[in-house]
Amino acid sequence: MTREDEIFEKLKNGDESGAAELVGMYYEDILRYCMFRLPDRYLAEDAVQETFLKVFRYFDDYRHKGRFRAFLYKVAGNTCIDMMRKKQWDPIPEDAAQEESGMRKTEEQEDFLRIIRKLPPELGEVVFLRFSQELRLREIAETVGIPLRTVQSRLRRALELLRTEMEREGEAEEEGNKPNEIEIRKGGRAE
């Protein structure tokens, strides 16, 4: 029996400590995902809280088949979409939000996010889930709601674009130029 199975058993038996364990197990991963999807940390934290509230509110309807992590990401993704539709906000500068929260991104994390945000959103999300969140391809398919083959082709296409972009950045650094963001969004073809 996995740790997740033990927690589900606690929750089914009415032991509320299981809820805290489940949140502790997934909070940071879901927060990173929501921070990727939303414009500021505070909104992302709200999305995480709302995600867990939804999961616990409808927990009795959930059938545990060992895919809870994908289910949780799906709920978080839908929550982020709902928040983007409903809310108008003034984004807090990222540095201020990170300072207050005590979570500073490493330079590598910032570079990774900067590069994948240049990708078309459907490709960037697959890359983020695979490499930042370490989801398996099948979990990504369930999370995003697309066939496994589509995940594979999006990941392959994204990696091709990223490879091209990295080569272009290397050439641009040698020449002293910055690569054009539009070029990567259009699949490497400048307009």
Describe the structure.
The protein is mainly alpha-helical. It folds into 2 domains: 1-104, Rna Polymerase Sigma Factor, Chain: A (Orthogonal Bundle); 105-177, Winged helix-like DNA-binding domain superfamily/Winged helix DNA-binding domain (Arc Repressor Mutant, subunit A). 72% of the residues lie in helices and 0% in strands. It has helices at residues 3-12, 17-37, 41-57, 68-86, 94-101, 107-116, 121-132, 137-144, 148-175, 181-185. Mean pLDDT is 82; it is low at 94-103.
Low-confidence runs: 94-103
Briefly note the CATH topology name of the largest domain: Rna Polymerase Sigma Factor, Chain: A
Output mean pLDDT.
Answer: 82
CATH superfamily of the largest domain: RNA polymerase sigma factor, region 2, helix turn helix motif
Count of DSSP helices?
Answer: 10
How large, in whole angstroms, is the Cα Rg? Answer: 19 Å
Number of domains: 2
Count of strand segments = 0
Specify the overall morphology: elongated
The percentage of residues in β strands lies in: under 5%
H/E series = HHHHHHHHHH
Q: Assign a percent range to the helix content.
A: over 70%
Query: In CATH terms, what is the architecture of the largest domain?
Result: Orthogonal Bundle
The computed structural class is mainly alpha
- In CATH's first tier, which class of the largest domain applies? Mainly Alpha
Q: Sheet with the most strands?
A: none
Q: How far is it from the N-terminal to the C-terminal residue, by CA? A: 55 Å
